[in-house]
Amino acid sequence: MNGIQGTPVLPVISLAQLAACEPSALAQLHEACVHDGFFYLVDHDLSTALIEQYLAAAQAFFALPESVKQRFGHDRQRGYPHTARGYVGAYGETLHPDAGPDNKQHLDWGIDRPGGAPFAGPSVLPDEHLAPGLNACAYALQDEVMEHLFPDLRRAIATALALPPQAFDPHFAQPTLIQRASYYPAGAGTAGKHTDNGFLTVLIQQALPQPSLRVHTRGQWRDVPCLEGAVLVNLGDLLQRWTCGRLVSTAHEVVHYQPSARVSLAFFIYPDIDAIITPIGGGPSFSTAEVMLENFDSIWVRKQGAGRARQLV
Ligand SMILES: O=C(O)CCC(=O)C(=O)O
Ligand SMILES: [Fe+2]
Question: Which residues are in the Fe2OG dioxygenase domain (predicted)?
């Protein structure tokens, strides 16, 4: 569970302390965002029972026959881009081109909104009969992350940067979300090295005896075990760009050789789809839509991997 001499491999930061503006927690967050780009978050108030139910419901979905799961594949989605929602089978996604297609499956939700904007759905997902409890858990945890955890964390990041707490808020009136359950088969699961592309990611790993997630921080690859009661947070390329590189998005990968399958739950959070962002510190403005469409084009059309995959050593 821990690194050398019991020291966690990544910083462990309390969201309750951040929300209370405790200077030591804010200093820890600043250090983690500048140097690690990846940290454990505790005291986050997410429901443990809900997480367990969501993991179990996702496992049951992935155990369905492939032909059933393919009914929710990209070619069945009606939103734009159609790759933003639904099921992808083994070897369907390539997060790093040199590593080849990933041996994992995934199912993506989002925040569906009318109007036809990019990444706004609608989602074609398995119903209650096929996947009992799955959507109810997914959307209930989505609410907890998007209504509570993320706003508190976003304001803490602004505060840690010596900005007003609400500095990022105008661009998060209607945040954009890719919400993913991933399934890695026993003994052979992979996700190629990449960076996440958004503002930040909240990642929940199924508790297993050995780590499968590896993160490149402070010059070396580290195994990242589950820490009881903690979720992981990693910063994305969009936030790195927003802060002119002051905060770092961090490379990571999954190498899953354990004897049982592994499920993880991720929330890839982006600003409003129409946000035009001016980097703090200067430089040309950019939009959420252009960042996301470029990343999806790289993954699904050009097959060049996710985030800054091509630049990683
Ligand atoms: O499954 C995991 O632990 C991480 C997956 C990941 O990095 C991703 O899907 O972006
Ligand atoms: Fe990732």
Answer: 174-271
Over residues 30-54, mean pLDDT? 97
121-147 per-position pLDDT tens digit: 999 999 999 999 999 999 999 999 999
Beta strands in the chain (DSSP E): 12-14, 38-42, 86-88, 105-110, 175-184, 189-194, 200-205, 213-217, 220-224, 231-235, 252-256, 262-272, 276-277, 286-287
What is the rounded distance in angstroms from the CA atom of residue 168 to the CA atom of residue 308?
A: 23
182 lines ligand 1 (CB under 6 A): yes
CA-proximal residue: ligand 1, atom 2 (nearest): 264
With 0.80 as the threshold, say if the pTM is over it.
Answer: yes
Report the DSSP pairing between strands 86-88 and 12-14.
unpaired
What's the CATH fold of domain 12-311?
Jelly Rolls (2.60.120)
CA distances from 69 to 58, 94, 208, 263 (A): 12, 19, 25, 16
* Predicted confidence (pLDDT) per residue in 194-237, tens digit: 999 999 999 999 999 999 999 999 999 999 999 999 999 999 99
* CA–CA gap between residue 77 and residue 150 (Å, rounded): 27
Query: For residue 292, is pLDDT > 60?
Result: yes
Would you say the CB of residue 191 lies under 6 angstroms from ligand 1?
Answer: yes
Q: Quick one: pLDDT band at residue 313, thresholds 50, 70, 90?
A: low
The token pair at 97 is: 């081109």
Report pLDDT for 13.
Answer: 98
Strands 213-217 and 200-205: what pairing? Answer: unpaired
Tokens of 223: 């195994």
Give the mutation target among 254, 265, 267, 312 for probing the ligand 1 site: most ligand atoms within 8 A of CB: 254
Helix (H) / strand (E) element for 156: namely helix 150-160
User: What are the b/e assignments for 112-140, b being 16+ CB within 10 Å?
Assistant: eeeeebbbbbebbbbeeeebebbbebbee
